[in-house]
Amino acid sequence: MHEMSLTESMREVIGDQARVHGFTRVKTVWLEVGPFSNVEVEALRFCWDVVMKDSPAEGAVLEIIRPEGRGLCLGCAAELTVTDRTEPCPKCGGVVFAQGGDDLRIKELEVE
Question: Which CATH number do you get for residue 14?
Answer without folding.
Answer: 3.30.2320.50
